[in-house]
Amino acid sequence: MTADAPLLVLAAGGTGGHLFPAQSLAEHMLRQGWRVKLSTDARGARYVGGFPHTVEIEEIRSATFARGGLLARAAAPLRIGAGILGATWRMIRDRPDVVVGFGGYPTIPALSAARVLKIPRMVHEQNGVLGRVNRAFARRVDAVACGTWPTELPEGVEGTHVGNPVRAAVMERAASGYIPPGDYPMSILVIGGSQGARIMSDVVPPAIAALPPETLRNIRVSHQARDEDGERVAGFYAEAGINADVEPFFRDVPRRISEAQLVISRAGASSVADISVIGRPSIMVPYAAATADHQTANARALTEAGGTILIPEDALSPEVLTREIARVLDNPAGAEQMARAALSCAIPDATERLAALVETLARKRG
User: Fold this and answer.
1) Mind listing the pLDDT tens digit for each residue in 130-169?
2) Which of 212, 280, 294, 349 could form a disulfide with 127 if both were Cys (CB 3.0 to 4.6 A apart)?
3) Of 280, 274, 252, whose CA–CA distance to 180 is shortest?
4) pLDDT of amino acid 43
5) Omega of the bond prior to 318 within 30 degrees of 0, cis?
């Protein structure tokens, strides 16, 4: 890669849901001979371990008006302003060809600087409803790429449906063979997301423990639980005699999805994309506090296709979940049909579609 290769700046907020699509695009653009930089905050830096080592990570200053006390909210404009100044200086120095924002408050400085400097820019929205930052920039960018379709957009804004890019580790297991449930070892994967994961830790273990003994003896569980919940969740499984691996974060989620007979998950956009591309039956519990109920929108196509069983959070209980888990594990043919239905919703070339938009913007600048 030469110093005069085109430069792409990615800006993504502090959750895996924003960072994982950015990682996928970074992997692809590097293969196309581009240079790539990532602009994120300290929180987002926790998710960059999977990025190629040639991606330069820049931590920027930003802030949110949605969290913290009065002092933190009052200081937010100053922190954001400082971040914009820093991002503007770096872009004057680096002269990026395109800037892509993936949502979250840490994208504000990069997108603002790109607008000031008239650099081609776009946003990618993973969810079926625009996040606050992407909504604010929707009329101030050259393109809006949508991961979930349809996406609710402001009046007068046109979106391009590209799908949600998945990481190379997911693509390596795309459409991998599914082993339906049976009288042999089976795997259940539980992924709850960083927000709203407590209810999954409260409800899922007793729901699994209530399965019939002849089913339970074959089950092993991988359960992603927050640090503060991990010890009690692991203790519950151990007392119930269930083989369980409980961790705050699995770095090999694609492998665990591919090996699972059933995935129990929130309906975050990245989770929906990963499960669809690999093709696995799932039970999804949309996060009730998600802005504009966007997680329900994320899972709509998968639900309508029959690839997932959707349980609203206010209807979730151990009894309800036990019944739905049994519906999948006791019906091998139905589980196989769910796996095929999930695959039918996948957009495995989402990264290439998004990259094509980047190339189009770069040509316009040229």
Assistant:
1) 999 999 999 999 999 999 999 999 999 999 999 999 999 9
2) 294
3) 280
4) 76
5) no
Query: Looking at residue 166, what is its pLDDT?
Result: 95
> 294 pairs with which residues across the strands?
none
Mean pLDDT over each residue of the chain, to the nearest integer: 92
Rounded to an integer, what distance in angstroms lies between the CA atom of residue 180 and that of residue 280? 10
Phi first, then psi, for residue 189 (nearest 5°) are -105, 130
- Low pLDDT (below 70) residues in the chain: 1, 61-76, 193-196, 366
d(CA 103, CA 135): 9
- Identity of residue 303: T
AA identity, residue 127: N
Number of neighbours of residue 190 by Cβ within 10 angstroms: 26
- What is the 3-class SS of 42-102, one letter each residue? CCHHHHHHHCCCCCEEEECCCCCCCCCCHHHHHHHHHHHHHHHHHHHHHHHHHCCCEEEEC
